[in-house]
Amino acid sequence: MSAATHVLVLNSGSSSVKYQLIDMADGSRPAAGMVERIGEPPFPDHTTALNAVADELAAAGLGFDSPRLAAIGHRVVHGGTRFTAPTVITDEVLETIRGLVPLAPLHNPANITGIEITRKLRPDLPQVAVFDTAFHSTLPEYAARYAIDWETAERYSIRRYGFHGTSHQYVSRRTAELLRKSPESVNVIVLHLGNGASASAVAGGVCVDTSMGLTPLEGLVMGTRSGDLDPAIPAHLHRVGGLSVDEIDDLLNRRSGMLGLCGDNDMREVTRRVAAGDTRAALAFDVYTHRLRKYVGGYAAVLGRVDAVVFTAGVGENSAEVRAAATAGLEGFGIELDPALNAVRSAEPRIVSTADSRVAVAVVPTDEELEIARQTFAVIPRGGE
Ligand code: AMP
Description:
There is one protein chain. The chain has 15 helices and 12 strands. By secondary structure, the protein is of the alpha/beta class. The chain has 2 domains: 126 residues, Nucleotidyltransferase, domain 5, CATH 3.30.420; 188 residues, ATPase, nucleotide binding domain (Nucleotidyltransferase, domain 5), CATH 3.30.420.40. A 6-stranded mixed β-sheet has the order 3-2-1-4-6-5, sandwiched between helices. Strand 7 and strand 8 form a beta hairpin. Helix 10 crosses helix 11 and helix 11 packs across helix 13. It is globular. It starts with 5 loop residues before the first strand and ends in a 6-residue tail after the last helix. The model has no long low-confidence stretch (mean pLDDT 96). The chain binds adenosine monophosphate (AMP). Adenosine monophosphate binds next to helix 10 and helix 12.
């Protein structure tokens, strides 16, 4: 019998379940897919969605009962201060994750449902939680603390947790490889620009600052989220505009960012409109890239010495326009983009700065699934090996 080297990576979101089966023996991916629009027919709930995933895997001869399946790795959004590393799931661990729901009411419940269902399907199989917050648990206390009343912060667990950690971890390490250096020897600014967007400052492989905070709302301008704003704005909207707490939450998370500024949250459409002379789209693009430059400059100050600025995720990997605007005028920081290299489209990790640029500018496609699979495989007990 062949060894159990497959890891099933599950990302159970509120309305979708994404899965990838990765063979850790050779890095191949024998199955991958997604079930969308959970809550609508034919997938009224997560149980039906995960049963559909089970059926798809079984049809490929790789079902939940496969002897090659070594473990299931679950993406879990919020690990609080309790989880700082991938964790084998026990009843107690699951209860602790449940206790963190108030910190991530939009995300953790779906992650928990996914874990519960797959534990029923394969009670004997190791299952591992890989937390989006874990890579940021190394933030120095002065970077994680908000300057608010101490007792209030303690009572409600208010601090900077950061998200997209798996991506920041994978991309910063991959960037060191691209530079042919050890992760311990390089300082990297990672710009994860997808639908959600976050920046991090990684010093020698250790995350020392990140732009998302208690929730994924803080920091960069995103597809539909505002990112940073004056903290008095929500109270103002409530007092003067009469908006309820839920309306404000909805406004800032789902109707702001690029969508709020110009009516489009897809950067492809925004840049197409900019090229066609649309002034509203151009202003939105400028707000987005101005924020990026502020974070690059800020994190350069945090790190002291920067070896690379790296772009990843949907926008970062694909939009030459965003990369150019986000690094424009930063020559004084030693950042010099090469326009020809930047214009090349590729799925490979690559350097897009000039040969003379003191700081490398890189594009590194993220691979959260592979990182989750690796971390899962590394912590599970494996008999006979
Ligand atoms: P992600 O969350 O990483 O899947 O990124 C999704 C986002 O990437 C989309 O909403 C688009 O705005 C953006 N995107 C994808 N492809 C391109 C492209 N070719 N050019 C610019 N933006 C893109």
